[in-house]
Amino acid sequence: MAFSRIRQLVLLASTLLVTSAVGQDDPCYSDAMRLCPNVPPGGGDIVRCLKAQEPALSPACRQKLLTPEQVVDEVVAECRADAARVCPQVPPGGGRIAACLRSNMLQLSGPCINALWAAKEKAGEVQQACASDIPTYCAGVPSGQGRIVKCLQGNLPFLSPACKALLTP
Questions:
Q1: Residues 75 and 119 in one domain
Q2: Is the pTM of this model over 0.90?
Q3: What number is the average pLDDT over the span 37-42?
Q4: Per residue in 124-133, pLDDT tens?
Q5: Distance CA 109, CA 144 (A)
């Protein structure tokens, strides 16, 4: 199905921000202050604390704490109809559907645009949190089709705490 390709592309982008310390402009800042006041920043401890208390999180924080795979699932769900409407003749594979969606942003629904934006933000989060892990554990892995995220997940026991916290539910 065409959407498996868009899923792979978004997963790839995800290999390219939950940070180990939550800053004041972060959507999880107030939740961290309220739910994890005694947890010191660094090493992904705040993220783990927040994930353990998911039902009490604000919607914005809950969205931020989604794993890359969960973000991809949201993109697929929110953009399926848009892809069928805007890109019906585009053959799947090679990132063609994702490129079609990006080049037709003005024709996309609000929920699809929001999901794509969230995926882009998640990609930045993964890149930041896993900056030292990607070259260490996945240096020879070609990008595309979610291979880097899969590589990171295959090396989960060895990853830095911040990277591991971002990739685990």
A1: yes
A2: no
A3: 84
A4: 888 888 999 9
A5: 26
